[in-house]
Specification:
By secondary structure, the chain is an alpha/beta fold. Helices cover 48% and strands 9% of the residues. Helix 5 packs across helix 10. The longest helix is centred in the middle third of the chain and has 20 residues. It is globular and about 70 Å long. The structure holds nicotinate mononucleotide and 5,6-dimethylbenzimidazole. Pathway: Nucleoside biosynthesis; alpha-ribazole biosynthesis; alpha-ribazole from 5,6-dimethylbenzimidazole: step 1/2. This is Nicotinate-nucleotide--dimethylbenzimidazole phosphoribosyltransferase. It comes from Algibacter mikhailovii.
């Protein structure tokens, strides 16, 4: 007799719920995925947490690829600490713990603030001149992220969403996307925080030159070349969360670019990932497609901060709750399809 796999057991449990077959659509796939991640028919979500990694980018100082000035990164970190940003509001709405990390903002934050200090440097180098960071800095970022995720998990969190803040980081993400997917850089570049058509054209020209200047040989070298510190930390955090068997919620364009790097280092990480949404940043859809990823939501968001991840958490809770708490046809005494239907 062949053993029934957990996947078959989960499918059976889902199919016996009081609903037509497949009627809970994507939530059924989500329940199945979470059951498989946790290796159980009765999964649970504990202490869902969003970590926002913030970092600055050398290229931002020139203002050629970013409509907002570099200072906005630090200003938004203060906004996070004061509870005024979209991610604060959505985390509160959905009872999610929120952690803010300084991965490399070009500002000295007062030590009493509720920010985890993981600063690698005060912003990356401008990759128009030299790689964004050294390989040693990149390794440092990966390792620091590793430690932080271990600490978060040891406090009982098994579901972690990732967000970021960093003026110019759609440029790094576009370069990484081109590198890891082979999609032409022009198709990877978008409006970011709001460039007009002329601005996008200039951004494509600048990033095409940068892209041609380098030939990174390893995923770590690609991260070090194109940056940024927050993206390298996201990559390390995703890898660690996968290794710790956590449910990983991927936010928008920049977090997905970090996942491309993580996936190149360890493709197994993908089975832990739930894709929260499809961002309005041009390129995100193709990036998701390259990963064969199906996003849960499509709300026209292009904010970052982990906002899409925060909005997806109720869906993840709903998937787990229906699997655990919905009645079966038998337990509820509901008739199944009649044979002549
Ligand atoms: O998450 C996304 O899909 C997304 C798309 C566009 C912009 N962003 C956010 O905007 C910032 C980067 O935009 P930019 O134009 O400065 O490259 C950064 O802080 C991101 O969090 C985020
Ligand atoms: C205001 C502002 C808020 C953000 N949140 C994430 N990226 C951002 C970029 C800007 C410009």
């Amino acid at each position: 007799m062949t053993a029934v796999s957990l996947k078959q057991k989960l499918r059976h449990k889902i199919d016996l719920k009081t609903k037509p077959l497949g009627a809970l659509g994507v939530l059924e796939e989500l329940a199945l995925q979470i059951g498989l991640i946790q290796n159980t028919e009765t999964p649970e979500i504990s202490k869902p947490t969003i970590v926002v990694f913030a970092g600055d980018h050398g290229i931002a100082k020139k203002g050629q690829v970013n409509p907002f000035p570099q200072e906005v990164t630090a200003q938004m970190v203060y906004n996070f600490v004061q509870g005024g940003a979209a991610i604060n509001v959505f985390s509160k709405t959905n009872a999610i713990d929120l952690i803010i990390m300084d991965s490399g903002v070009n500002h000295d934050f007062e030590p009493h603030l509720d920010i985890i200090d993981a600063k690698i440097a005060f912003g990356t180098n401008n990759y128009q001149d030299q790689p964004a960071m050294t390989l040693a800095q990149c390794e440092d970022a990966l390792n620091k992220a590793d430690d932080i995720i271990s600490k978060i998990q040891s406090k009982g969190c098994n579901t972690i969403g990732f967000g970021e803040m960093g003026i110019s980081n759609t440029s790094s993400a576009a370069l990484l996307m081109a590198h890891f997917t082979g999609i032409p850089i022009a198709e990877c570049v978008g409006s970011g925080t709001g460039l007009n058509d002329e601005g996008i054209h200039k951004k494509i020209q600048i990033l095409s030159e940068v892209y041609q200047k380098y030939n990174p040989k390893t995923p770590e070298e690609a991260l070090a070349t194109f940056g940024g510190f927050e993206i390298a930390m996201l990559c390390g955090a995703i890898l660690k969360a996968g290794a710790l068997n956590m449910i990983i919620i991927i936010d928008g364009f920049i977090v997905t670019a970090a996942l491309l790097a993580a996936h190149a280092i360890n493709p197994n990480v993908l089975k832990h990932c739930v894709f929260a949404h499809s961002s309005n940043e041009q390129g995100h859809e193709k990036m998701l497609h390259a990963l064969n990823a199906k996003p849960l939501l499509s709300l026209g968001l292009r904010l970052g901060e982990g906002t899409g991840a925060a909005l997806a958490i109720p869906l993840i809770r709903a998937a787990v709750n229906f699997l655990n708490n919905m009645a079966s046809f038998e337990s509820a005494g509901v008739s199944t399809e009649s044979e002549n239907a």
